[in-house]
Amino acid sequence: MTPGPPLPQDLADQSVVVIGASSGIGLATARQVRRRGGRVVMAGRDPERLERAAEEVGAERSAPLDAADTGRLREFFDALPGPVDHLVSTAGSPFYAPLADMDVDEARAHVGERLALTLGVAKYGGAVVRDTGTLVFVGGTGGRRPGVGSAVTSALTAALPALTASLAVELAPVRVNLVAPGFVDTPLSASLLGDRLEARRERLRATLPIRRVVGPDDVAAVIAHLMVNEAVTGATYDVDGGQHLVPP
């Protein structure tokens, strides 16, 4: 497990399921849970990468999972040995395409899959979370500013906070919150940007109020806070380094 400064043991003996845990924000969250004394169940789509991550973190158990497969998602939660204290889902990816080049059927499939994934995690995962626990989704802020190619992502960026608030009412007393990162320096970001990655990093270092790039640990720290703060539900937390304050 990656070493770091001591953290409060405020998740001691609590169980946390992390979906999308094999890299990026999900892996950082699993590490944060372990450093705070919690037990973690890790799920992700890539079996080999997940196995390496679970071994590094010291996971209680791990299971390959495509969260977009509703049947498999239900089986995953049914197979858990008992209730859990917290559930985190980082599953889902952005969709960028200019309207002129967009495959509308592909866009329809992406929107439907993203919403169904969120609802599936809430329906089947929410049923195994203890009443004192938390369900945390990870969305994003990338679609809040209109732009060519961002229509689908903008629609989902707007939809997820409203969906989260509704789920917080319906699943109460389980708390439901959404963490919305801006750009985060993860393997997914690297794969999307390719050779433009370093230029994006340099621009963010120069323009963000925090004068550095947001990393997975920054997002994981907010997720962990939402697990232990029992007064927060139905909320959306931006973790963007002040990106929303910077002119486009």
UniProtKB/TrEMBL annotation:
Residues 14-187 form the Ketoreductase domain. It comes from the Bacteria. SMART domains: PKS_KR. The keyword Membrane does not apply. SUPFAM superfamilies: NAD(P)-binding Rossmann-fold domains. Keywords: Oxidoreductase. Pfam families: adh_short_C2. Gene3D superfamilies: NAD(P)-binding Rossmann-like Domain. Belongs to the short-chain dehydrogenases/reductases (SDR) family. This is SDR family oxidoreductase. It comes from Streptomyces lusitanus.
